Amino acid sequence: MEKGNDMPAEWMVLINPMAGNHKGRDDWGKISLLLDRHKFTYQHHFTEYPRHTIELTQDYLRQGYRNFIIAGGDGFLHEAVNAIFTQTDVDPRLVTLAMIPVGTGNDWVRTFNIPSDYEAAIQIIRKRKALRHDIGRVFYHVNGEERSSYFINMCGLGLDAEVNKRVSADRERRELGHLKYQYHIFSALMGYTPTRMTIVIDGREISHEVLSMSLGIAQYNGGGMKQLPFAVPDDGVFDLSVIKKASKLKVLRSTPKLYDGSFVELPEVATYTGKAIQIKSEPKCSVEADGENLGESPFRFEIIPQILNVIVA
Questions:
Q1: pLDDT classification of 2: cutoffs 50, 70, 90
Q2: Alpha helices for the chain (secondary structure H)
Q3: Fewer CB in 10 Å around end: N or C, the chain?
Q4: Contact, 52 vs 83, CB < 8 A?
Q5: Quick one: DSSP state of residue 9?
Q6: Among 290, 253, 293, which Cα is nearest to 133's?
């Protein structure tokens, strides 16, 4: 779409053409026909390179757009959220995000039962039922320098972050879907050593030998794993699931429990909630946020309660 000075349409649709093994590109014709059929007034723009979503979102906010449809996956949504919260022109509470799932994982939408069927997803957007969603911010380190990123779904530490690195780097098994995550859980687990972590939750300090940790706002990551089964996206607190040191055989046997959330009943798992969280580890460990690999410990997590309007079923 050519940028112009006309009054903005009701919706700006941002499409990741690479999402879901090029589904964003290949399926845009179907999606646009459905938007037209349901009488949406919209403009659209395909992204062209990594982080282009951030530039586009901030540009269109300055042009007057306040309603965005994200046609892509979790990483695409992550970039749109970071665009909204790293600009100062528009109050984030005035912005509304809706999602048409086109990615491979599509984890954030699972919490809200937003289907991958385009017709059904667009029907949900048309009804405009909105929830004021919490947003998290994680502070991490790269080469000793502190940086930060916003997230809407979940962060993974320890083994979770290592698996995410391997999944992100694996371009040869795209067709396997969630089986790719299982493959890399197995391969990463074989050489992974639990990490001693000191966790401070709202001033209370705890310490564990941690194999893997999930911290976030919504319930799913890793292509359908229900790693935070008790998370409520607008309750103003983070949920944490800590998988402590366990035998590799037990971890492998328990992997199916990740998909229905029942793994939290295992004695090796502890769950917590909190608003302000600090984590130190020995040795250093990595963090991913909404599937995006970031940096190393130490970490700080802050929650911004009920700050962003999202369309839900």
A1: very low
A2: 19-26, 28-37, 52-63, 74-85, 118-127, 159-169, 178-190, 248-254
A3: N
A4: no
A5: P
A6: 290
- What is 137-302's CATH topology? Tumour Suppressor Smad4 (2.60.200)
11-128 — its CATH code?
3.40.50.10330
Distance in angstroms between the alpha carbons of the first and the last residue of the chain: 29
For residue 159, the 8-state DSSP code is: H
pLDDT tens, position by position, 211-258: 999 999 999 998 899 999 999 999 999 999 999 999 989 998 999 999
Q: Whose CA is closest to 4, among 58, 59, 71, 83?
A: 59
Report residue 140 as tokens.
């991490």
| Long-range Cβ contact pairs of 89-95 (< 8 A, separation 24 or more) | 89/58, 89/61, 89/62, 90/61, 90/62, 90/66, 92/135, 92/307, 92/308, 93/132, 93/307, 93/308, 93/309, 94/66, 95/61, 95/66, 95/67, 95/68, 95/308, 95/309
Place of tokens 């949920």: 239
Per-residue tokens: 247 = 């035998």
Domain ranges of the chain: 11-128, 137-302
Residue 105 contacts residue 73 (beta carbons within 8 Å): yes
Q: How confident is the model at residue 132 (pLDDT cuts 50, 70, 90)?
A: very high
The Cα–Cα gap between 30 and 262 comes to 38
pTM exceeding the 0.85 threshold for the entire prediction? yes
The reply to whether domains 11-128 and 137-302 share a CATH topology is: no
Contacts of 177 (CB under 8 A, 6+ apart): 104, 223
